Amino acid sequence: MSSTVNTGTPSGSSERSRLAKPSLPLVIATMHRPEGITGVQTHVRELRQYLERHGRAASLITPFSWGGLLTVPAFGPRLALARVSGPASVAWHRHWHEVFLHNALRRHLGGMDECVVYAQGPLAARAALRARRGSQQRVIMAIHFRVSQADEWADKKLIARDGTLFRGIRRLERQVIPQVDGLVSVTAWARDALVGWLPEAAAVPFAVIGNFVHLQHVAADPQPLGDLVTIGNLELVKNHRFLLKTLAEANRRGRRYTLDVYGEGPCRADLVQLALSLGLEHQVRFHGFRGDVRTFLPRYRAYVHAAYSESSSLAIMESMAAGLPIVAGYLAPLAELCDQGVEGRFYPLDDPVEAAGTLIDLLDCEPARAKAARAARARFHRDFDAEVVAPRLLSFLEDSTRTSVEGTP
């Protein structure tokens, strides 16, 4: 098993410059569309933008890179299947997206020699392993998921936990992950969770390197937009219902906080109805997806998060960059991003009354809120700034992958 080395933070601009200039061509393989608000899409976008700022380029290969109009009959039926069977829609989605991604990678890698394929998940990794021309085209897989991708689909209530498809997804991961040339995990917890059910993954060279965000300089706007803000797809796992119930409890204690929700998803109608039933229609605003949401963040008082399943959270990092204290449910991966009583506060996800008390304690004391805001911004600069973290990732991707690296903040 590979040894583990703590790399720490690269110091000085010369070190960052050295690490930011990998010699091998980089190919990013993902099952997702190039644009969107998922964590994977944001991770890829941030990496590509970092490379562009430093005069580098990476090839982005997706299922939509091959097939043209064939994507319509291949991908379209999933929507109809979803109305009938969650497992059938998931199986259809995974199968055809991998087929198209494999074909796109085979065409792209066929004209290359030595390179690194940075695969965003097990299916992308399998497509890359099948498409590569030899071991000189190394495949490094990113772990964005919680435990297994099977658990991600089960958390969304689209497949049955321990059902046929659940077991099939885990079987695929057991076959693919030991074959890759390296693993990158966004949190130490996520890697430990993977090794917990798949011990063979421990033998693969790995790096624990957190997600990162480019700090945008936004023109100061003195006009506040509201009290609280949250970002994320409107789906069950993001647990927006808990946030609404927490606001209702705060109302009962005489605190009428506003909440702006950025994101779209299948739960929107249900959440709008719940807001009405709780008397929150004048406090909660649903803005849908906004690509420029980061420019609004400094105009709120705090960022709130209620997801009950995460491997990390780019939304939390973006909010810390904007100088917002974080209030979230306690999850081990999130505890790697901020500390209780420093950059934010954790609340229990099964008690809206206690959660309301946590919010009130923070927002009622402006000195405490401002102190947490300053700590959040400082933590971002130290641990999540793209200029600090991206060089670590590129260094590992370009490494011989014979040595494992602990790169967590």
What does this structure look like?
The chain is of the alpha/beta class. It is built from 16 helices and 14 strands. The longest helix has 24 residues, at 86-109. The protein is globular, with a radius of gyration of 21 Å. The two termini are 23 Å apart.
Which strand order spans the largest sheet, edge to edge or round the barrel? 1-14-7-6-5-4-2-3
Average pLDDT score: 90
> Terminal Cα separation, in Å?
23 Å
Our Rg estimate from Cα atoms comes to 21 Å
Topology:
Blueprint: E1 4-6, H1 13-19, E2 26-29, H2 39-53, E3 59-61, H3 71-75, H4 77-84, H5 86-109, E4 115-119, H6 122-131, E5 137-143, H7 149-155, H8 164-176, E6 182-185, H9 188-197, E7 206-208, E8 228-231, H10 240-252, E9 259-262, H11 268-277, E10 284-288, E11 302-305, H12 314-321, E12 326-329, H13 332-335, E13 344-347, H14 352-363, H15 366-383, H16 386-398, E14 404-406
Parallel strand pairs: 1-14, 2-3, 2-4, 4-5, 5-6, 6-7, 7-14, 8-9, 8-11, 9-10, 11-12, 12-13
